[in-house]
Each structure stands twice: as C-alpha cells, then as structure tokens.
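agent: user wants the structure for Inactive ribonuclease-like protein 9 from Prolemur simus. delegating to structure tool.
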Amino acid sequence: MMRTLVIRHLLLLLLLLLQPLQLQGGALQFSSFGNISEEFLEYLEEVMGTGPTRPPTQKKILQMFIAEPERPLLDWDYCSSEMMMRNVHYRFQCVTKHYFLCVSYEYLKMLCSMSVALCKNGTRRCRLSSHKIEGVYCNLTEGDRMPNCHYETIYRKGHALITCRWKKETREFIPDGVDDIVLLD
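agent: tool returned. relaying tokens verbatim.
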C-alpha cells in the first residue's frame, strides 16, 4: 500500500524534499560601489531583506515614535508629513496605524521597568505609563504604498501603552513600539 503511494506521487514527494531557493542580490549588491554609506546599506537590507527585522535601537525609536518637540501636534498634516519624512512603512507598504509620543527616550526606557499590562489585543506584554502624555494617533485614510500614504491626524492625551524587548547585550528591557494611547479617567 505504502509503496504504491510513493510510486504514484513520486513527483510531489520530490518537490517536498527540495530546498527553498535563496534570493539573489539584496543590499549587498550595492556594496561594490564603494561610495554608499553603511547606514544606507543597512536600510536597504532591512527593506529588501528576507530575514527577521533587527532589534530596535535608541536611534530607531527616536526616529519612529518620538514626536518633534518644536512642531505642534494639532497640525492637520502632522501624520502624513512625518510618516513620509521618517520613512515609517513596512517594505514600502503603508502602515495602517502609528503613534508619535511627546516624551523622551529615557522616559520610554523607564516605562519598560514598570509592571506588565494588557495590550490592546489582550496579550500581557505591554507597559502602561503612570502619567498622562501627549501624542498623535495616525490613521491611514488613503493609499497602500509609499509615497501615496495619507493619514488622519488625531491628537490624544492619555496613558501610553508601549511594548518592550529584552536586549541581551545590556541585559535590560528597551522600548520596542507604541501599542496605544489609552484615555483613562
């Protein structure tokens, strides 16, 4: 019985045994030009790469989630312009929602040492700020690929709900993202 199954479906069996093809090129093909910065090569690798994303760095959190202190949050075009200027996307696909907070990186890092709270999706891996903070919620209204993403800017004042990630090198939790700005009373 088993022998007849193997003989009848030999091609399917061989296809299952094949190794997946590795993509050629990527960001490394640009390294031969010599005058391209390492930061740009890292950006290309993140956008075009097929592996897992790199853990967050202080620079990345500042770029992605910390609001510009001199720019008013009530600006109607805040989200559309900031998302474009800061390159907030996932492999050039528009991000459906995003948050910018008016806090320092040190404050977010301090939040990572707070007790665990429920995230919006119900998992227990977020941290909730004890003080109200100002921020902006960006909601995608139009577009699906950069640079055609247009966002609605919604000002919020509430408690920040952030996610943190363990950093092995320093043996501490560091900020990873913003889950929500919760309006608690």
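agent: one observation worth passing along. The beta strands are 97-101, 116-117, 126-128, 133-142, 150-167, 172-182.
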